[in-house]
Amino acid sequence: MSRGSHRKGPGRRTSLPGRAFGTPLGACATCANERQSAVNRASSPVGAAARQAVENVLRLIGPAHGVLGGYALKSRDSMMSQGRGLMGRLTVLAVGVVAVIAAGCGQTGHGVSMSHPSGFWHRQHPSREPAAEMEASTADDPLNQGVILFGGLSVHAEGASPVGALGNTWTWNGSDWVERHPATSPPARYGETMAYDQATRTVVLFGGLGCGHFCGDTWTWNGSDWVERHPATSPPARWHATMAYDAATRQVVLFGGGGCGALPCGDTWTWNGSDWVERHPATSPPGLYGAAMAYDAATKSVILCGGRSGAFLRLADKGTWIWNGSDWASAASHNGPSGQIFAGMAFDPGSRRVVLYGGTRDLVEPTPDTWTWNGASWRMAHPIPSPASRQSPALAKDSTSNDLVLVSGSLLGLGTAFRTGGTWTYGTS
């Protein structure tokens, strides 16, 4: 296999505004009488607490006179009397929540527990960002106290010419992206998969597209340099496989991908630090490419979600699967993501939930949805603000802050790819 690597400089970046909300808040609307009653309560002691709650909401979503997703945010007082539109409904919701807390607990916002807690997205403003517009891969990088990103695909905004794969290595230090210049590096590629192997304290990279065709090589990152590994046994070459570290068994788990013929790969492999071992579980998901995988530390199991299970135009798989270290089991969850492919997924230590973001259902329109998994079911979260719609995002846990870091991802349409959204972090504070 040729190891020639073509390194591209940073591609052109074009920012495209996207939808700022996971789902419209129309479900929070109340009837006119209820709205008026809620507004009337603004002058009562509970109402004073409600006004404070509105101010807290405004602090989360931006300045009181800013613009969010095309909706003008009015001043606090006008919001309390508006009673119409998105922000009016949000105000009523805040009033109602505070009123219930004050009536039932004698408190104004303290001591509330949620069975399915959600976090918050925060837009970051690094001085530099990786050039990859999509299909890069990230992993937790405790060796550098942050996140590592490798490769990806850079596409001109005009779509006039394919730019191709990148071979750059970047690390996130909590506030900025830093390009690394290791002595040795994997060939440029995109659609690879990575995971941090806690047992060996290295980041494992496998597969992708860009080695003349599908890649079947294994590399590890030791914090300063890449090392090509030469295992006795290895999965067949592929791209868009998915991988996660299983802390319960202290092994990296790899599943699926594209490149095994007319249909996606449906094999399961584990990495023990020196060699790949093919597993033969009694039950297995269908062959999938573009699925998302993460280790759920709360349940000590590996979660697999989404992906495409058939030919190119077949709809994405709607299933959720759980790996227990030796076998796969289908999770009976009927309210989950409706068949996302090319989504990002990682475990959030703050909420102790698996978080799934973005992806696409039809390879045409990406989604901005954020979902959380509590070990038994999925729940759509509605964090405000939220990253713009994007597919093929890179999402990983920052080992220092324990926040999730989202970068890369594109909005596709009519053969044109646009970089969207920049760097975001997700956490409970």
Task: Provide structural commentary.
There is one protein chain. With 429 residues, this protein is an alpha+beta fold. 13% of the residues lie in helices and 29% in strands. The strands form nine sheets. A four-stranded antiparallel beta sheet has the order 3-30-27-26, with no helix packed on it. A four-stranded antiparallel beta sheet has the order 4-5-8-9, with no helix packed on it. α2 packs across α4 and α3 packs across α4. The longest helix has 21 residues.
Concise description?
By secondary structure, the chain is an alpha+beta fold. The protein is built from four helices and 30 strands. The strands form nine sheets. Strands 3-30-27-26 form a four-stranded antiparallel beta sheet, with no helix packed on it. Strands 4-5-8-9 form a four-stranded antiparallel beta sheet, with no helix packed on it. A four-stranded antiparallel beta sheet has the order 10-11-12-13, with no helix packed on it.
Which shape, going by the Cα principal axes?
globular
Proportion of residues in helical segments: 10-25%
Oligomer state equals single chain
Ends distance: 47 Å
- The parts where pLDDT drops under 50 for at least 5 residues are 1-115, 157-161
Rg to the nearest angstrom? 23 Å
Largest sheet: 4 strands, antiparallel
> Which structural class do the helices and strands define?
alpha+beta
Count the E strands: 30
Arithmetic mean of pLDDT: 74
How would you write the strand order of the largest sheet? 3-30-27-26
How many H/I helical runs? 4
Strand content: 25-35%
